[in-house]
Structures are given as structure tokens and as C-alpha cells.
């Protein structure tokens, strides 16, 4: 495994749209979210190191970024194919990959962690990074459901720690939730807000509460749909059709659960039901547990509530 950051496409001179103090960021985790965050950061002029556990995974992440960029180019450069090509190669050229997050720390201003939704694994990662990163480097997590304060407690830089919660698919969804813990300094928080603007996202602020704003409302709704199915009230297809045509949602709750990943949904619910056992909205779901146990994780594994096998 390579332990240094390597560029996979030759860069062009930066045509950065805007730049704050964040010039270089390290995105850890090149899955659904990490690859989207790396893509948007690079396309808005930032230098990016994307880290994952193996070169195989990173190659898939790069391929996914390439495909997603093609969709952006098709839309934004419909009348300018040359400009589109240049945008694509410049963006790819700003992304390096590595299997060692520690090796990327020296030059990085901001870390965005987007690895598996597990507190112990996130804490272990951040305590290693804390020892390696320069003093000014800001640490953030893209966690869906774990308290930012619990993750930050593994480091000695609580004033330079916050939450940056993006939405899937990152290149399309316009929102970024910016979360501060009591120890986050005003300077750090303002830098995170400015970075959000640089990423061309609309930012909202939220305290470090379970699920922040969107997931605190969205996840109970999605799980309530699964409970309807468990009771045999209606089929996934009918529930999805009802919410799309009756409530104007772009995806129904089962399509969205498959899109988010059933493993991620389970991680969220397990964490909340353990921490808040008195809240009936956070009860585990036997059907969700069964699907995840069978490896049916949604669109990314080829099957969840629906089948995606070709
Ligand atoms: C769990 C958490 O912690 C938080 C979360 O993220 S919760 C999940 C939040 N996300 C959502 O709720 C997503 C809800 N779904 C949607 O908004 C839409 O279904 C969708 C944007 C995903 C797809 O939209 P759609 O109209 O069904 O499909 P599609 O026509 O393929 O895409 C719409 C546009 O987005 C673009 N697009 C979609 N996915 C893309 C991607 N990954 N990269 C780049 N562009 C993409 C398409 O190119 C298309 O562009 P045009 O309009 O110019 O043609
Ligand atoms: N799926 C979604 O819709 C959303 C997820 N999130 C959050 O983002 C995070 C990532 O979620 P996804 O991208 O969906 O997961 P994913 O499963 O698609 O990707 C996670 C990636 O992290 C890598 N990884 C795991 N441990 C690692 C480590 N120690 N070092 C480096 N890489 C490691 C895995 O190999 C994998 O490629 C989670 O905290 C999740 O809760 C936030 C918003 C939306």
C-alpha cells in the first residue's frame, strides 16, 4: 500500500472560484460521501488529498468522481465542450490519493472525515491525526448521527474541531450543516462557514444535537416507513409512490434508504437507541437489521429494499 499522497492526473494552474484560508484539505473515506466531498472541493479550487484503506477502493472512488464530473460537465458546459474538458482535467488534477491519512497531514488546513459511522474507529483515527497534524489544522467529521463532542474528545484540539455535514449526492445537494461544540472557537467556526461558501453550499448552523437538523427529522420518517412495512400496512412501492406524488418528495423513503445505505441507517439507529432508549422514534427495526445482516445494504451492494442488479 502506498503511504504517500500521489497525484493521479496532471494539474493545471488553479482557476479557483474563491479561496479562504483553507487551501488544502484531506478527505478521509472515499465512499459515497467522501468522493462527493473531494469532487466538490476540487471543483471549487481546493487542493484535495483523498484517503481510503486500499488503492483498489481509491481507484473506484476516482472512477465515481470522473462519472459524476461528466454529469456536471454535460449540464454546465453544454455549449463549450473544450471548457468542459478543461474543467474536468483541472478538477481531477487537484485530487491526490493516499492510503495514509497521517502522511497527508503536514500540508493540510482542514480534515473532513467521512469513514464508517462508528465512534471508536473515528476516535482512533483522530487521535493519530492529532499527533501528526500542524497546530493550525482544523478537524471535522461528516458524521450523520454521532455527537461531534464524543469524536473530538479523542484529540487535544477541541477549539479547532467541528462538524461539516454534507448531503448525498454531494455535487447536487445544496445544503451544508455546520456544527460547533461548546469548545469550538469563533475563529474555527467562522472559517468553517467561509469554507462552506467556497464550496458553494448554503450553510445552516446547528448545535451538537442528535442528527443535527435534517437527520433528526428525516431518519425517524424513513424508519417509520419501514415500521409500516413491518406491520404489513402497505408495500414499499406504494409507500414510495404515495410520498412522491402526495408529499412532493423527490424519492420515497425506501428509495432514499437504499440510496443512503441501509448499513448507515442501521448505524444511526443503533447509536441513537443505545443513547436515548426512552425515545420510541429511535427503536431498532428488525427488518432493517435482517437486511443488513444479509449484506443487503441498498444501491451500493446491488440490493436493499429493491434490487439494483442488472
Ligand atoms: C444520511 C445523511 O446523513 C444525510 C443525507 O444525505 S440524507 C439524503 C439526502 N438526499 C436526498 O434526500 C436525495 C433525494 N433525491 C433527490 O434529490 C433526487 O432524486 C436526486 C438528485 C438524487 C436524483 O434526481 P433525479 O431527478 O431523480 O435523477 P437525475 O435526473 O438522474 O438527476 C437530477 C440531476 O442531478 C444530477 N445528478 C444526480 N446525481 C448526481 C451525481 N452523483 N453527480 C453529479 N450530478 C448528479 C443529474 O445529472 C441531473 O442533472 P440535470 O437536471 O441537469 O439533468
Ligand atoms: N450515506 C449517506 O447518505 C450519508 C452518510 N454520512 C456519513 O458519512 C460517513 C461515510 O458514509 P458513506 O460515505 O455513506 O460510507 P461508505 O461506506 O460509502 O464509505 C466509507 C468509506 O470509508 C472507508 N474507511 C473506513 N474506515 C476507514 C479508515 N479507518 N481510514 C480510511 N478510510 C476508511 C471505507 O473503505 C469506505 O470506502 C459516515 O459517517 C456517514 O454517517 C453523512 C451524510 C450522508
From TrEMBL:
Residues that bind CoA: 68, 75, 144
Subcellular localization: Mitochondrion matrix
Sites marked Important for catalytic activity: 165
One Gene Ontology term of the molecular function aspect: (3S)-3-hydroxyacyl-CoA dehydrogenase (NAD+) activity
GO cellular component, one term: mitochondrial matrix
EC number assigned by the record: 1.1.1.35
Enzyme class, broadest EC rank: oxidoreductase
GO-annotated biological processes: cell differentiation; fatty acid beta-oxidation; spermatogenesis
Chief location: mitochondrion
Domain of life the protein comes from: Eukaryota
All residue ranges annotated as the 3-hydroxyacyl-CoA dehydrogenase C-terminal domain in the record: 211-308
Pfam family, one: 3HCDH
Alphabetical list of SUPFAM superfamilies matching this protein: 6-phosphogluconate dehydrogenase C-terminal domain-like, NAD(P)-binding Rossmann-fold domains
Residues annotated as domain 3-hydroxyacyl-CoA dehydrogenase NAD binding: 25-209
Pathway annotation from the record: Lipid metabolism; fatty acid beta-oxidation
Catalysed reaction equations from the record: (3S)-3-hydroxybutanoyl-CoA + NAD(+) = acetoacetyl-CoA + NADH + H(+); (3S)-hydroxydecanoyl-CoA + NAD(+) = 3-oxodecanoyl-CoA + NADH + H(+); (3S)-hydroxyhexadecanoyl-CoA + NAD(+) = 3-oxohexadecanoyl-CoA + NADH + H(+); a (3S)-3-hydroxyacyl-CoA + NAD(+) = a 3-oxoacyl-CoA + NADH + H(+)
Annotated function: Mitochondrial fatty acid beta-oxidation enzyme that catalyzes the third step of the beta-oxidation cycle for medium and short-chain 3-hydroxy fatty acyl-CoAs (C4 to C10). Plays a role in the control of insulin secretion by inhibiting the activation of glutamate dehydrogenase 1 (GLUD1), an enzyme that has an important role in regulating amino acid-induced insulin secretion. Plays a role in the maintenance of normal spermatogenesis through the reduction of fatty acid accumulation in the testes.
Assembly mode: Homodimer. Interacts with GLUD1; this interaction inhibits the activation of glutamate dehydrogenase 1 (GLUD1).
Family recorded in the similarity comment: Belongs to the 3-hydroxyacyl-CoA dehydrogenase family.
Protein name per Swiss-Prot or TrEMBL: Hydroxyacyl-coenzyme A dehydrogenase, mitochondrial
Organism from which the protein derives: Pinctada imbricata (Atlantic pearl-oyster)
